[in-house]
Every structure is written in structure tokens, then in C-alpha cells.
Fold this protein.
Amino acid sequence: MKFCNFESRLTIETRHMGFVNLELDLLRTFVAAVETSSFARAADLVGRTPSAISLQIDRLEELCGQPLFRREGRRFLLTTTGEKLLVHARRLLAVNDETVDDLQLGKHKEVIRLGMGEDIATGCLPDVLKQFSLHRPEAYVSVRVGTSARLVSAVESGELDLAIAYGNQDRPSALHACDQPMCWIGASHERLRRKDSAVRLVLFAPPCAFRTLALEALDRALLKWEVVFESPNLLGQWAAVKAGLGVSVRLFSSVPPDLEVLGPKDGLPPLGTIPVTVHLARRISPEVHDFRELLIPALSALAEPTNPGCEC
């Protein structure tokens, strides 16, 4: 590597433009040379020959107008200018790499498109995502929350890679994951039904597997019922139940802390379990396969009630 007496030798083009452009390729080579303490190792890192590395450093020193390295015995150490440049170079490269990573997400990152109900999204999903991020840090997960019927249709049309649904076990894409216990859910101050009065229900609009199973259970028990409130989401459903409008049916594992689990002691029939199914697109990536392998055990873990005395 040759050293010269630099006196702000800028190129003709740079002088004409009125400012200096520090090329990112030169800065990347410079940082690699510093971090590896070797032009030869830096050459391997950036995919160039050692002679090309030397030329790039010469070019960068020409643009800076100052030497970046000084010799001490057999070693090359940074000059004061080199130390200052290293700080700026790392920051510029970090901004560049972050920008490229963001703009070229679809090209370089595997995006997993998931669909699930609100119970799952707020239940076991956070733990599964944490495990998956450790196993596949390069992958991104996009989650759509919706009703089971719409999510399964989205998988079959290719809009989603994987969906978790309630029921729908007869669909071609279905893989049975587990059966989860259901229960009646109501407010503590709500007296459900007087003699010969109908059970007031707060439910999703059809099609809804919970709705179907709840109405079938009431019909088997020869109980009158009336749907008094329909909500497209759980937030509205829980608000109506808390207000005492009626009772709802959902997973035992997703009962809000300020509502109560109800059952035969409250004049309501047993509900049993609901099938939880996982639906996969026809072609899945290795990342989707790995996510499924983490998801199914997490779903199965939710199938065990935490309250053995529940009379759902």
C-alpha cells in the first residue's frame, strides 16, 4: 500500500459538482479492512481481490483528502481521519442496509401469511411467535384475524398460507389439531333465566361453529333461547355480556377475568368440546412447515382446562 502527501486532491468531477460523494462500496471495503485487520481477509469478505481492495482504499483516501492508515512496524493503524471516518461509515452502511432490507422485503424475506380467530391471536400465538422468531429470525409473520369460514376460504384461494379454524374439519385442507373445551360465559350479576323464560344469547352471526354447537345444546335440553346481540368481534361480544344482555359461548381457555364460567348449576346444558383445525395451502415453504410444528403442540396445551371443577 503506498502513501502520498495528500493536499485535498479531489477529482475533477467532484470539484465540478461542489461536494464529495463517499461511495458506499468504498466505505464497506474500508470497514471490512479495519474489522478484519487484513486486506486479504477483507477481500474474501467483500468478494474482491487484495489488489482491488488496495485500489479502493487509495480511492477513498483521495476523496477524503487525508491518509486513513499509518504504518507501525508491520501493522497498519488508523489515522485520526480514519478513526472519524470509521464512525460515519458504520452509520451510513447501517442506514443503507436497513433501507434495502425494508424496500426489498418480498425479495429477501419469507413472509408467512397466517389467519386465526381472536381467541388464538390473544392466547397461545404470542408464545409461538416468540419461539418461531428464535428458530427462524429471517422470516416475517403477517396475521389476519377473522371468522373461521373466511379464513379457511382464504387458505383455499391462496391468500393465506395457514389458518387456524374452529370446526371446518370436513374441508380438504383440514388437519385436526385438538378438541378444546367450550363453556357458557356470563356476568356475575346476571341471572340467566327465570322459569319458562328464554336463554338470552350473545353470539357471532352465522356461520359460526360456536353458535351452532350452543344452539344444538339448548335444543337437546329443550330450552328456549333468543339471540339478543350479534357482534363481528369478541370485544363487542364481551362488552354485551358484561352489560348483562345475555350469555355467550367460547373456549374455556379464553374466558375474560371479569366474567364467569357458567354451566348446569346455572340452568345451562353441558357443551363439550369444539374441534380446532389447521388448514394449509397446497404449497408451503419450510418456514410455514416449521411454524405449524410449533403451533399444534401449543394448541393442544390449551385443550386441558385449568379448572378441573368446571361444569361446562
About this structure: The chain has twelve helices and eleven strands. The chain has a mean pLDDT of 79. The radius of gyration is 32 Å.
